[in-house]
Every structure is written in C-alpha cells, then in structure tokens.
Amino acid sequence: MTSEPTAALPPLPPLSPTPRSTVGRMRERAALDREALYRVLDAGLVCHLGLVVDGAPVVLPTLYGRDGDAVYLHGSTGARALRLAATGVPVCLTVTHVDGIVYARSAFHHSMNYRSAVVHGVARAITGDEALHGLGVITDHVAPGSWQHARRPTPKELAATAVLVLPLAEASVKVRAEGPHDDQDDVTAGLAWAGVLPLVQHWGTPEPATDLSPGTPVPDHVRTRRPTSPPSA
User: Cα 231 from chain centroid?
Assistant: First the structure.
C-alpha cells in the first residue's frame, strides 16, 4: 500500500513594495520574499512602534508576536499611544538584529551586519477570543510554551490590557551579511586589520524566583530554549 504524496504548499506572495516601503539606499540588500520578513520578525523579541502623538513622533519599545500575515501587540489600556494607535492613525513597526560589526581599513567604511524589517500600516484593536488569541501568540513568541504552562489572564487582567493587530501588507526587509567594502588603494597599502566581529546572543542558565517552592523543576520549555542563529552570508 502506497501513501499519497504530500501536496506542495502554494508559494507565499512576495513583498510588494509601496512608495513608503521601497528601499532607497543599498537596494541590493532588500529582500522581496515574504519568508525573509517572517524570519526577521520571528527571530526578534522587541519591536519599536512609531506614531505621531500631538504632532510629535513617539517610538515605543514593546513585545510582539507574529501569526501568519499579522503582528500582535499589547500594552496597558492606560497607555495613551496605544489607544491612539487603535484609532486608525498610521503606524510604523520595526525590528532590527545586529549580527556583527564590520571593521574596515578606513573609518568611513566601517559598517554593521544586520537584519531589519519595517512594517507600515494601520493597527486595529481586538477583544474577546481574538484578543486571547493575540495574547497567546505574543506569549509563546517571547516565552515559547508558556501559554499552556502558566495561568491564563483573568477577566480583570484582560480589561486592563489593550491588544492590537497590525497586518503585514506593507513591509520591507533589508539584510547585510558580508565583509568590509574597502577602497582598493587601502587594501593594497595594507593600512589596518579588516574583517567582521560577529555578535552572538545566547540564553543563560535559568534563575528560579526567590519565592519558588523548593524542588520545583525547571520546565522543559524553559530549560531547552535555544537561540536563533543569524543567516550565513
């Protein structure tokens, strides 16, 4: 008896740059495949949400989580910027990873290897089951396995929490993963050391709370967490 072949998943639609999301400088570093956007967002822990409040720009660092073509955000219902973001004003969300410092032979050509994503759009406030789903996405993005392990939010906690969803319809991705670009005269002269100093992040040893019951084991979803390696050049 033979098994039926697994049907191939349809390809994801590419990113379609708009005037706001079209990369200007170093266009060769732009990635147009949607999977590149997912990889940058999924590897991050903190995003920065930018919007204009009372005529002045405000940029807020906050936790987030992605599910499909949407990013979920949350915060206190008392946060004025979050309340404003839910009213249909334009917002901009960014996530950046630094993967290394690029040392060149001249100070002018020093650079950085990085992965970055910029999302433009309008966020929408969500409630009820949709908000619970969003909170689960955020929780398991930042602390995988915790939505099933920890206590769920109470009605009082939910009432104090604003949950927003931002579609990934308008986004750009930019990646640098290479060595220095020196002037040939500087290379020939051998002026200085050149190369890349990688930046590697890793999780440390779990530290139990001081009021944890003695003998409580570290759960597997905490103990076995591993870092996400940056893509190779």
Answer: 15
* Pair type for strands 170-176 and 161-167: unpaired
Q: Under a CB-based contact definition with an 8 Å cutoff, are residues 121 and 169 in contact?
A: yes
Mean pLDDT of 108-122: 94
C-alpha angle with apex 164: 159 to 169, nearest 5 degrees?
165
Number of domains forming the structure of the chain: 1
Is residue 20, in this structure, part of any structural domain at all?
no
Residue 16 domain-assigned (yes or no): no
Q: Is residue 217 part of a domain?
A: yes
Helix, strand, or coil (residue 128): helix
pLDDT in tens, 191-230: 899 999 999 988 989 999 999 999 899 989 998 876 544 4
Residue 94 lies in a domain: yes
Reported as a single tens digit per residue, the pLDDT across 49-72 is: 999 998 999 999 999 999 999 999
Q: Where are the beta strands (DSSP E) in the chain?
A: 30-31, 46-53, 56-67, 70-76, 90-103, 111-122, 124-126, 161-167, 170-176, 195-198
Cβ atoms within 10 Å, residue 119: 23
User: What sign does the dihedral 62-49-42-77 (CA atoms) show?
Assistant: positive
Domain carrying residue 155: 27-223
| 3-class SS of residue 97 | strand
Instruction: Classify 65 as helix, strand or coil.
Output: strand
Query: Rounded distance, CA 80 to CA 141, Å?
Result: 25
Q: Residue 121, by phi and psi: left (phi above 0), alpha (psi -120 to 50) or beta?
A: left
Q: Are 126 and 146 in contact (CB under 8 A)?
A: no
